[in-house]
Amino acid sequence: MKRNARIISVAAMAALGAVATAALAADLPKVRVLATGGTIAGAQASATDYGYKSGAYDVNSLLSAVPNLDKLAVIDGEQVANIGSQDMNDEVWLKLAKRVNAVLAEPGTDGVLITHGTDTLEETSYFLTLVTKSSKPVVMVGSMRPATAVSADGPGNIYNGVAVVTSPGAKGKGTLVVLNDTIHYARNVMKTDTTSVQTFESLNRGPAGVVHTGKVEWFEPMDRKVGAATGFSVDALDRLPRVDVIYAHANMSADLIDAAIKNGAKGIVVAGVGDGNMTTPALDALTAAAKNGVVVVRSTRLASGITLRNNEVNDDEKGFIASGELNPAKSRVLLQLALTQTKDPVRIQKMFYEY
Length: 355
Ligand code: ASP
Hints:
It is a single chain. This protein is of the alpha/beta class and 355 residues long. 33% of the residues lie in helices and 20% in strands. The chain is built from 10 helices and 16 strands. The strands form 4 sheets. Strands 4-1-5-6-7-8-11-12 form an 8-stranded mixed sheet. A 4-stranded parallel sheet has the order 13-14-15-16, sandwiched between helices. The protein is globular. The N and C termini lie far apart (73 Å). The model has no long low-confidence stretch (mean pLDDT 94). The chain binds aspartic acid. Aspartic acid (ASP) binds at residues 38-39, 54, 84-86, 117-119, 142, 144.
């Protein structure tokens, strides 16, 4: 009899515990994790050797490796792709952006976390910041070490990423990138180191904030148009215009410019030397291209600084666009979206100033 009573009371306590957990969960924010692959989902043959395969683990395996995540939010995982981000392409961008917009439109969802490879994370994040309709938080994380590595950085980045999604200050800031305890605006962030965990930097402006063991501090507000304010929409898009990036160097010829145009490029971004400069043959080829309706953006191959309009190149006369703070990879993203609306270099230059 006594024994039965004890069993009943243990069962009652378990039931109470379940009710309390359910009540707690009901109070927690709801976060959807959209996984796309990358080193964060990568597996090695040996935990201490070079060599691994990106995108080997699925979203549920990634989430289960993060302790205490369920104390921050109620999380649902969804696999959108499972690729190394060196293979990222327009098709996956459009699929991901449409998914982000659909998920954020659900009244029960408070924000989105995206796991992604680090190689092209700066491009995908800028694409999403320009086309996401909702002001609910969107945060992207990756990792420099595979999930199987000694001291893998992925779980900590996912934990901090979810903490930023649930932070009240994250709303309306556009897509954010969180790695190694640092928060960056998509527009400003760049991968700067091939292997270091401190690879993401916002070299012109500094980071948006920091996040230590889930505690978030913000530094600077976002002063550019993001999300719905840009007027871009992916709703009716099933492809993006071709834009090529061409790298300038000593003795640069016009050959790659001609090849890009021959192969159907609607826009060309030059990763120029210095302040967006290039050789005279290259400049002449691009001047002719712009006259024929190809949209030309001058950016820089340097890691920081502003590509100024009408500095050493007369952009007004040639009908070029100066990229300002945007590096070649981000300039390409903005030009692809701009070309879905216009080919007018004056209008596109305005977008480069405002976004
Ligand atoms: N190549 C990998 C990728 O971008 C690198 C990484 O995720 O860190 O998918």
